[in-house]
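Page 47, continued from p. 46.
Same chain as before, 142 aa.
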Amino acid sequence: MEEILTLKELLLKGDISGSLAVVEELEEMGRKDIINNIRSYGVILLLHLIKRKVENRTTRSWDVSIRNSILEIRGLNKRPKSKGIYLPDEDLYATLEEAYFQALNKASLEVSEGIYDSKQLEQLVNPEELLNQAMELINPEG
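Result:
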């Protein structure tokens, strides 16, 4: 909110270059927020993919959570006005990589009633395979 007040002040003073700097800062803050939200849904997606893989089963609840996470990631990644995306595939993959270890930590509490710690789970899952599966689900056209 402080940035908007600063922008207003700069515009009233006619300071266009200062105003543009604040606008760029606001754009970057918005982009970071979107990326953080994508990462959060990535954690949920990866958590359930890990559970599926290790337990070699699925539940309706996991399937719904996976589908909802995919829809949220797709929606968040779309730029409404330009019809583009915030994260191209390479950046989206990197964001999912960042989410992977958090998903492993959470999965350690849930997979097989918490019998594995995150290090043990890491041995049971191929991260590259899991991340590629997540990418394929998010962007089936590739």
